Amino acid sequence: FFPPQVLLLACAEDLECVPGFQQKVFYIEKPFEFTEDQLVLKMKFDDCKGNNKLNFEVSNPDFTVEPDGNLVALKNVSEVGRALFVHARSEHAEDMAEIFILEANEKRGALKEILKLEGNLGIPRQKRAILATPILIPENQRPPFPRLVGKVIRSEGTEGVKFRLSGKGVDQEPKGIFRINEMNGDVSVTRTLDREAIANYELEVEVVDTSGKTIDGPVRLDVAVIDQNDNRPMFKEGPYIGHVMEGSATGTTVMRMAAFDADDASTDNALLRYNILKQTPTKPSPNMFYIDPEKGDIVTVVSPALLDRETMESPKYELVIEAKDMGGMDVGLTGTATATILIDDKNDHAPEFTKKEFQATVKEGVTGVIVNLTVGDRDDPATGAWRAVYSIINGNPGQSFEIHTNPQTNEGMLSVVKPLDYEISAFHTLLIKVENEDPLIPDIAYGPSSTATVQITVEDVNEGPVFHPNPMAVTKQENIPVGSVVLTVNATDPDTLQHQTIRYSVYKDPAGWLEINPTNGTVGTRAVLDRESPFVQNNVYTALFLAIDSGNPPATGTGTLHITLEDVNDNVPSLYPTLAKVCDDAKDLRVVVLGASDKDLHPNTDPFKFELSKQSGPEKLWRINRLNNTHAQVILLQNLKKANYNIPISVTDSGKPPLTNTTELRLQVCTCKKSKMDCSATDALHISLTLILLSLLSLFCKSF
């Protein structure tokens, strides 16, 4: 405690008696705990008339003032707040004293600083009718309840009046936590409080008369819930995974561990300290890492040489981290989490071939993988420091070989991409280099073991004969005589070191027009070539031939022949349509437009010449007019009776020599009424112009 000469700040030194406390303001240093029956302070009250019926009231129910003015604790108390208020009343005077409780590190001694502290507390110095000092209540108190926690004092007495309490925790949710004794102002709590749920309550207290009318107030009454260390530290942000590069310098920060404590952050209840409880594995050192007890930063503490991923038992370390509150004291609560630290690889090992020379055998004419080259690399297989990149640095001028990395095994897959020819070269020697995807660190280089030789032997196989050229092309007129020579094919055997004979045969001849001499390869016709055949596409007929050598087993080559057929005028033109209808009373006597077509090609097609056979009788019945190169129009010269008429029409193409085709156009003359054409009766009448001419000729002959 402060000595009396220091605690005394405001007292009356007058020789005359002044009613009230002789010292109204006190400052004491807060101990670790006020113990039961401990004398806290001596106060002196004098009403200058004998102090008859003197009574003291203390704002905190855990303290009392004895009749002689001694302030004592009624039990062991650790939290009392920043101030205590003592109200004294006798028959002739009343007064109030204030006791401020300072932390051990707070500055004291200067009146200016003390008054500043007093101002910061927000406690007015003027006289108040209602004195409602802040109430401090520890959380997690055990029954019995209700429990007295504070007192509201009215300086003008409590006779004929009542205290009324309101606010959150009284008449607002959560209701019923606090209540006040209407008669004497005692404040009680009815249940256990949880600071982490609600840390502060702002209540209001007022004094009312018996009718409920407010006399004094309302005055604010603050209730603060004192934190207890009832929450363990928790690691909420896991999983905690950190990475550090192998060979990192001592003191390299790996990661930060941060725990959370729900207790009051301004108290030691939430003051955390970190510690490593366990490291797995324990090699090459049981203390590979250190954690900053205050910040939670994990750093390396071993030399770079020990932080070598390739020599470690495992590149993964697991640390059990403990967070303890109360600043790490033994009484603190703890929480743990596991930190996983991965030692990341750097490319400090070059890949090396498992042997200096590899052998491979491949048949000529075959492509694909011929050998897998194996390498070793001590770096992490999951990184570019392990993954291999192969290249052919010598022996591949024709780009016949390629090499690729097998992503699963890291082997080099050497492939033939262009077929090899035994007759050109039976042996190949390749020089292969291997590197990593990632560059090596500066003090490491690729050595002789990063190159290897591949000896490749090409095996001879019986290759099929090859046609020259292939495909073969020739142009011939259609309709050439059977037995005509089309061409002579030529095939050679690539196996120049073998002496083999070649025989020829027809492989595919869709129309059956061709034959081939099996010895000399002469292709001739055995049927007429027809350009208009459905087997001819775009004037080209395609056939396939085989060349078979005498090897064992024999090998076969295929040749393709394209015959372009030139057109000759071997198709007569055709006429369309061959049926027309007209009304017997038609005003428009243009009966039909005729068209002509020809399977041949120009100039053996249009322009076409359209003609009518000669008409006999007293007058002509129709005529034909040419419209263009391919069409003509038949026109009646007069209306005809209902009947069928056959009109012979000849069409001639422009070929040399030209070809003519005569076609009968059947003309039906029908009855037409109300836009309906009736041709049914015409079937009974078949009047042929040809028959009429023959009948007239017969009558003419008999008359002579």
UniProtKB/TrEMBL annotation:
GO terms for molecular function: beta-catenin binding; cadherin binding; calcium ion binding. Residues 161-235, 236-353, 354-467, 468-575, 574-685 form the Cadherin domain. Its main location: membrane. The keyword DNA-binding does not apply. InterPro entries: Cadherin (IPR039808), Cadherin-like_dom (IPR002126), Cadherin-like_sf (IPR015919), Cadherin_CS (IPR020894), Cadherin_pro_dom (IPR014868). It is a lipid-anchor; GPI-anchor. PANTHER family: CADHERIN-13, CADHERIN-23. This is Cadherin-13.
